[in-house]
Amino acid sequence: MHPYTDVAILGAGLAGLSIASWLVGMTPQHVSAPRVHLLEARQEDTNDRTWCFWDQQPHPFREVISHRWPRWQVRFGNQCVEREDSEHCYSLLSANAMRRSAYAAIATRPEFRLTRGIDVGTISPQNDGLHIATSQGGLTSKLVIDTRPPDTTMLPSHRGVWQVFHGVEVHCPEHGIPLSTACLMDFQTGFSGVNFVYLLPLDDHRLLAEWTCFHSDKTHPDCQRLLSRQIPVQLSDWLNQRLGSQWTLSRQETGCLPMMPVTPPQLNSRYLAAGIRGGWMRPATGYMFASCQRGAADVARQVHQASQTGRWQLTPPLLRSPALEWMDNVFLQALRQSPEQAPGWFMQLFEQTSAIEQRRFLGDEPRLRDLLAIMRGLPAGPFLSAAFRLTRNS
Ligand SMILES: Cc1cc2nc3c(=O)[nH]c(=O)nc-3n(C[C@H](O)[C@H](O)[C@H](O)COP(=O)(O)OP(=O)(O)OC[C@H]3O[C@@H](n4cnc5c(N)ncnc54)[C@H](O)[C@@H]3O)c2cc1C
Fold first, then answer.
1. What is the 3-class SS of 244-283, one letter each residue?
2. Which domain of life is it from (predicted)?
3. Does 148 lie in the same domain as 281?
4. Which of 35, 56, 127, 285 is 20 to 30 A from residue 167's alpha carbon, by CA?
């Protein structure tokens, strides 16, 4: 391994590959780029996730989006609220497609390299850079962008919940579900806490279905049981009821996402935590794709500038307004206080807000008037109580 680089990106997942792709895109071919070394622990890629998001802003992966839904809905019993925005569809990108696109971009630049199967350890300041200890020896870099998953010390569990989900892509005889509509939440009754099914029709014979619930402690044996057994069985029963027994499994995905405000680690101005580790994921929704693209574009611009000026330093991008962060924290507090009421809140919120307000709010780009509309759409009592409790505890 070459012992020096300008920029080390630790982890080649969504954030690491997005930053690299943005950087390639903003460096003209005739201009030399900074030396960028991506260090990734995995030896092999697996198609272990899909990213869904409202496609509102330009990003390097537009060409490889595989599905778009102009309509979305939420359901609870026989209630259904549906909204439509055909200009900015709810869109799906598979992990494999994103990675292929990023690898192709990286391959166009000799200054970029990706090393797989390397385990990054500690990072320590050195003269003119940071030293990175790895399973394949040491490396010194002028800048370090760290996208490895957050350590538990960065996750204040008492300020949020874990979003626990299991998803399956299935093949079946004609399912009859309209291909234009993504079902974001179909709330399920008779289970403890909030449970919902997320359903994306991929074509006439294929569906992506996920069962989601929340838990307060990822390390608790109950949470592990939910993930390894209970949710997969519940999802399978739900599919049997909906499709009969004629479906076959083609792919699975599983997650346990921290819906809480992450505290990113700080070292010095040459080090930046990014991705989930940097707090880029929206705590109240578990969505990260849109804010990740904004963050990646900002970080890539800073790297580009640093390589031209020789001032090697980074500042964290500002991804969400303080007002949005406050609202998300109030929402998480309310969810912890009264989880059983959440399906009713969501139905009311979707009923009382427009497609554009929902899309911009959930897609991480709300204007002030969208935030006001969202506040008006939520029941005052539980949210005032949550806001009061949050203020008292802070
Ligand atoms: C199944 C699933 C579905 C999701 N769906 C959506 C969605 O639809 N929409 C959305 O917006 N968000 C979604 N998310 C949330 C979020 O967008 C993803 O988790 C996203 O991958 C986070 O990006 P990241 O770069 O922070 O982390 P990752 O993509 O996980 O990348 C971190 C990388 O660091 C590597 N790494 C770890 N330790 C080391 C080490 N010691 N040394 C070197 N490398 C290391 C890992 O192998 C990994 O490749 C989903 C998450 C999951 C798990």
1. CCCCEEEEEEEEEEEECCCCCCCCCCCEEECHHHHCCCCC
2. Bacteria
3. yes
4. 56
Give the domain extent around 149. 4-76+87-154+260-309
What does the pLDDT look like over 319-339, one tens digit per residue?
A: 999 999 999 999 988 988 888
| 59 Cβ below 6 A of ligand 1 | no
What is the Å distance from ligand 1's center to 312 Cα?
26
Is 255 touching ligand 1 by the criterion CB < 6 Å?
Answer: yes
Give the model's pLDDT for residue 393.
Answer: 76
Q: Is 287 in the pocket of ligand 1 (CB under 6 A)?
A: yes
Question: What distance in Å separates the CA atoms of residue 181 and residue 392, rounded to the nearest whole number?
Answer: 42
Q: 167-177: per-residue pLDDT in tens?
A: 999 999 999 99
Asked if 280 and 319 touch (Cβ cutoff 8 Å), the reply is yes
Q: Is 66 a domain residue?
A: yes
Q: Is the distance from the beta carbon of residue 14 to the nearest atom of ligand 1 less than 6 Å?
A: yes
Residue identifier of the C-alpha nearest atom 34 of ligand 1: 11
Q: Would you give the distance in Å from CA 376 to the centre of its chain?
A: 26
Tokens of 41: 């622990």
Tell me: do 341 and 226 sit in the same domain.
Answer: no
**Co-location of 195 and 285 in the same domain:** no
52 lines ligand 1 (CB under 6 A): yes
Flag whether 131 is in a domain. yes
Does ligand 1 come within 6 angstroms of the Cβ of 76?
no
Residues 292, 370 share a domain: no
Check if the beta carbon of residue 370 is closer than 8 Å to that of residue 352.
no
